[in-house]
Amino acid sequence: MNAILNKATTHFRSKLDGSLNSIDVPEWETTVYFYQTSPLRDESQILKLQQEGKPVDALVQSLIVKARNADGTKMFQNADRVTLLNEVDPAVIIRIASAINGVDEDSLEDVEKN
User: CA of 63: how far to CAs of 52, 57, 93, 98, in Å?
Assistant: First the structure.
């Protein structure tokens, strides 16, 4: 591996090896944990949905690929998508996804209105 690529991967791993960030979700009586960053493979799934004009699906995908339990294991699986889309409070999903993605909640007002 060349020196620059080695530095780049070391930098990325340092963000994944650090402590998990978290957001308290009183409605679910839990805390959702997440890493400061995520692999480009995961981000590309979210970006694709956004480009296809599916912002709600992109928010749910964010939860599926980024939300973690306290031990770092994934909180949701792909099989949970339909339930998250149809049976979970959208305002809570938006709040969690905003925290996970480092997005200001005000910029998601359009999504919440839809």
Answer: 18, 10, 8, 10
For the chain, give every domain's residue range: 19-113
DSSP line for the chain: --HHHHHHHHHHHHHHHSPPEEEEEGGGTEEEEE-S---HHHHHHHHHHHHTT-HHHHHHHHHHHH-B-TTS-BS--GGGHHHHHHHS-HHHHHHHHHHHHT--GGGGHHHHH-
- Helical (H) or strand (E) element with 31: strand 30-34
- Dump pLDDT digits (tens) for 15-62: 777 689 999 999 999 999 998 888 888 899 999 999 999 999 999 999
Residue 57 CA: distances (Å) to CA of 15, 63, 67, 78: 26, 10, 15, 12
Quick one: tokens of 92? 């809570």
Q: Identify residue 78 by its one-letter amino acid code.
A: N
CATH class of the domain comprising 19-113: alpha beta
